[in-house]
Amino acid sequence: MNDQLLIVDRLEDLANLSSHASSGFEQAAIYAATQAIKSEFDALEDELDGYSAEKLSSACWSIRAAVGYDITNGHSKDQHVSWALGQISVLRDLIQERTSPEQ
């Protein structure tokens, strides 16, 4: 895996793209890329603590729901995108905390 923060940035890009994805191809591409990112993190079990892993899972679920590849629980695409962006922001902060040198 490349730098974790770079991958989190790409996940954020996917969340933003999911709000505008209209064709089946775009939705499928966002779904596939989201799943690939999740798989990369899952392969590094020791790299994320439980809370960080939960944030990653929640963000990925919201992106999948926004593009129609997971259940929405009756919530709008915009709501799922908003949730994904919030989870990604927390995940980024957690990774930065873990990887920054002690002060």
Order of helical and strand elements: HHHH
For the CA atoms, what is the radius of gyration? 13 Å
Protein structure class? mainly alpha
Low-confidence stretches: none
What is the straight-line distance between the termini? 27 Å
Task: State the total count of DSSP E strands.
Answer: 0
Mean pLDDT score: 91
Q: Any overview of this molecule?
A:
The chain is mainly alpha-helical and 103 residues long. Helix content is 72%, strand content 0%. It has helices at residues 4-18, 24-42, 50-66, 77-99. Helix 1 (4-18) runs antiparallel to helix 2 (24-42) and helix 1 packs antiparallel against helix 4. The longest helix has 23 residues, at 77-99. The radius of gyration is 13 Å and the shape is elongated. The model has no long low-confidence stretch (mean pLDDT 91).
List keywords for this structure.
single chain; mainly alpha; 103 residues; elongated
Give the structure's gist in a few sentences.
With 103 residues, the protein is mostly helical. Helix content is 72%, strand content 0%.
Give the topology.
Elements: H1 4-18, H2 24-42, H3 50-66, H4 77-99
Helix pairs in contact: 1-2, 1-3, 1-4, 2-3, 3-4
